[in-house]
Amino acid sequence: MRVKKQKRHRKIVRFYSACFGFREPFKVLCDGTFVHHLLAHGLTPADDALAHLLSARALLFTTACAVAELRALGAPYSASLSAAHQLVTARCDHEKRVSAAACIESVVAGGNSEHFFVATQDGELRKKFREDGEAGGK
Ligand SMILES: [Zn+2]
């Protein structure tokens, strides 16, 4: 099961490398749900876990809005919050905080010039990116 998943991830990474000039180390933009998932499954240190999944070096990013969302969730997410603080903060221009999903969407909007992979456990957001990918071929 795990091996199969890894193989699929590798294929996706190869695809993006070939088609869009994604290069190692890959930049992975994580939201709070994903950070929480990594911790809950003991996938730490997170950059090692992702490097293993992608079979490539990975740099983890999050956004100020995603961190703010985690903070708002309070005590049950305090471990995820401090883990998120360890990540590099990708720039977003939201002076007033928006939801992590909206923020991440805006950071990769307009052609995803920073070449971020999006890592989320948010079902709606995953669905959205999948549909975009299939409809637009990108
Ligand atoms: Zn933002």
Automatic annotation (TrEMBL):
Task: Enumerate the UniProt keywords alphabetically.
Answer: Nucleus, Ribosome biogenesis, rRNA processing
Q: Tell me the GO BP annotations in alphabetical order.
A: rRNA processing
Provide the protein's localization: Nucleus, Nucleolus
Q: Name one Pfam family in it.
A: Fcf1
**Which InterPro entries does this one have?**
Fcf1/UTP23, PIN-like_dom_sf
One GO cellular component, as annotated:
small-subunit processome
Q: Its family?
A: Belongs to the UTP23/FCF1 family. UTP23 subfamily.
Q: What does this protein do?
A: Involved in rRNA-processing and ribosome biogenesis.
Protein known as: rRNA-processing protein UTP23-like protein
State the species of origin.
Iris pallida
